[in-house]
Amino acid sequence: MHAEKNDIISAAAEIAKEKGIDKEVVSEILEEVFAGIVKKQYGDDVETDIVTNVDRGEIEIFVIRQIVEHVENPAKEISLEAVKQREPDGDFEVGDQYPVEISPEELNRRLVVFARQTFLQRLHEYEKNVIYDEYNKMIGEIVVGEIYQVKRDFILVNHNRRELFLPRSEQISNEHYRKNSTVRAVVKEVRKGTSGPQVIISRADPMFLKKLFEMEIPEIFDGVVEIKAIARDPGKRAKVAVLSTDSRIDAVGACVGMKGVRIHSIVRELNNENIDVLLYSEEPGLFVERALTPAKVTKVEVDLENRKAQVWVDNNQESIAIGKEGINVKLASRLTGFDIDLMREGVVPEAKGEGQTREQAEMYDIDLSEFKEELGETLLTTFLDAGYLTARNVLDATEEEIESDIKLPMEEIRKIREMMRKELEEEPENESQDE
Predict the structure, then answer these.
(1) Where would I find the beta strands (DSSP E) of 102-236?
(2) Which of 237-241, 307-311, 378-382 has the lowest mean pLDDT?
(3) Are residues 151 and 72 in the same domain?
(4) Do 180 and 119 belong together in one domain?
């Protein structure tokens, strides 16, 4: 019996060390558990005193008994004669309280086994509550963890010996995750479950983008520039509306940085997600107009009651306003909270170049980040680093310039240029002029 009791203390010490639980907490749980089994054996109204030492693996169990002349209830009483035999020099009287240590043999074996089970259960519940409280306070904060398991529908991430979940729905599209690599994500939600709290982290949530802005841009961290709204299609495109609280600070410029250095670090973290930073406005029409950047808008009419906006654009701006796969207008709607209806002005020509000057045709362009799927992450980054930010930049350069900047075979360069021409619906030029 004594060995079983010591086993519980040893297990407690081991668990406290492994889980990083404070020894005082472990001692408190042990004392409550053993007080419980003593009451089960001797009665609910018996008074106990439990003393534990997790470091030394010791526990002392005392039952407080009243000193009487004649014992009628051995669980709660002890005779004065028995006390004097224990402590001949003691000054005790009838009516005093006297602590009697319970020997291991006196405890019911079944109750000791029950105590072990109860202790482990209580410790597990405590640990679950600690984890829940810890991460519930961290919602909206970025954590860095190590990927230790990659599943089809989720990824398990180790963060401070805690298991975090990165579901597929919270991952950036086309992003590849490898075991033992580190990953940054924002704590999105903590769910309570029977087996313990489930901490959900996200790289797709707008909160993640917001925290990256706070980390990379001092003006946002200091509160000089505010993020008023964010809309994302993770891995593809995002729109961020900002406003400066100091008239001397250019909100958009502060976010983009010199030569785009600040925004580029965020773009890299988000798998080359294209980010439009625009100036927020309290005036709905102006905000809708800015949200459709990089398209140039002719006129905006808003219906505040129904949250609808009619937006007029020139023919050569319609494709830009809509964006590839409709992403630009979709994100503008999400950012502003208005259902945007695009209206065309003028006549749409049968084909590019007919009824349209070359200057008008060149106004139509596509950000190079829109070609991430066709180019691949590595090649896209190489183009961006070399200063090719749009399809028009690639087409306006000579093949020799691109070959020098990107170090690609000429045949590959021609394929890329042809693909971009088709996207722009542009007539092929005579390539021999470039040679």
Answers:
(1) 142-150, 154-159, 162-167, 182-191, 198-202, 225-233
(2) 378-382
(3) no
(4) no
